[in-house]
Structure formats: C-alpha cells, structure tokens
Amino acid sequence: MTTTPEIIFTRLTEIPLAAIAQHMSDPRVTEHMPLARGAWDERACEAFVAAKEACWERDGLGHWALLRDGEYVGWGGFQREGEEWDFGLVLRPEHFGLGLRITAQALEFARSDPRIGAVTFLLAPSRKHLRALERLGAKAIGEVDYEGTRFLKFELDTSG
Fold first, then answer.
1. Residue 65: Cβ within 10 Å count
2. β-strands 149-157, 118-123: how paired?
3. Could you give the CA distance from residue 79 to residue 51 in angstroms, rounded to a whole number?
4. pLDDT band at residue 1, thresholds of 50, 70 and 90?
5. How far apart are CA 60 and CA 44, in angstroms?
6. Percent helix, strand and coil across the chain, each rounded to 5?
7. 76 CB contacts (<8 Å, ≥6 apart)?
8. Do residues 91 and 72 make contact, with C-beta atoms less than 8 angstroms apart?
9. CB 117 within 8 A of CB 150
10. Is 105 helix (H, G, I), strand (E, B) or coil?
C-alpha cells in the first residue's frame, strides 16, 4: 500500500537561506515572475524572508515554506494586498506537479479562516496554461498593474 506524501506548511525562517537562494536562482522558477529581479544570493533571501515575516507580524498570515516529507519543495501562501488576500505559489521545478495539491490544501485553510472571503491570484501574462485556476472555480476579473508590471487577475470566492 502506498501512502501520499505529507505536505507541511511551516515558516520560511525554518529553511536555510542557501536553499531558498538556490530555488529562486533557477530560471525555470523565475520565468513567469516578472517582479523577481536581480540576483538571489543569501542577502537577497534574507531580505525576502524578513519581508514575508513582516506580513505575518502585520496580518497574522503570510507565506509558508512548503515541505513534502520534510523536504523543502517551495514557498507559497496568502499575502494581504489592500483589502484582498492574494495567493502565490513558487515551487522548485522538480516539484511543479504538486501545485494543484498544495493549492487545494491552502484553499481549504482559506475557507476555514473567517478573514478570507475571497482569494485573488495574480499571474504574469506569459502564463498560458490557466485551466487549473478554472478547475478551482477562479474567475478572470481583468488585468492589473502591480509595481509597474501588468498581471492577469483571478478571484475565487472562499466564503461558501
């Protein structure tokens, strides 16, 4: 009998900066991340983790490090953008196939959290495969400018 590997959400501070730097330095990861500019050395990762921890301090929620059977597979979670909760997910290339499973687990969390009535997703226009969002029930609501960059915006009602 095979068992499904467990996915654990933990804090980014639990992950060595070198592992995050290696992950975020892979061009397959940043290909659809137009805001991921510059080198991802340990200093940049330290600032990144500090910024994500500041979201936890400010909002009581943020991005997690994602572990599959104890192995770091990426990061993702919810970040408050004005009155909205945006969901982001950035996996290591060898774990891209876990995206839908991790997203479903995160959305289960969102549905149980009374603060999150809806979740938004911002995707670079270079992303062409959007059927997974459709299968989740997310609706395209247009384009937005974020930090001078155009994104496709989707929304999923999590209140029901």
1. 22
2. antiparallel
3. 11
4. low
5. 23
6. 35, 35, 30
7. 63, 64, 66, 87, 88, 89, 90, 91, 102, 103, 106
8. no
9. no
10. helix
Q: What is the pLDDT of residue 61?
A: 96
Question: Which tokens hold the place of 102?
Answer: 């991790």
Write down the pLDDT at residue 3.
67
pLDDT (tens digit per residue) in 61-99: 999 999 999 999 999 999 999 999 999 999 999 999 999
Which tokens sit at 19?
A: 């592992």
Q: Is 5 exposed, middle or buried (0-12, 13-18, 19+ CB in 10 A)?
A: middle
Residues 90 and 100: their CA atoms lie apart, in Å, by: 12
Structure tokens at 39: 């080198």
**CATH numbers and ranges of domains, the chain:** 7-157 (3.40.630.30)
Question: b/e for 111-134, b at 16 or more Cβ within 10 A?
Answer: beeeebeebbbbbeeeeeeeeebe
The residues, ordered by sequence, that sit 6+ positions from 123 with a Cβ below 8 Å of its Cβ are: 32, 130, 133, 151, 152, 154
Put the strands of the sheet holding 149-157 in their side by side order. Answer: 7-11, 63-68, 71-81, 84-91, 118-123, 149-157, 139-146
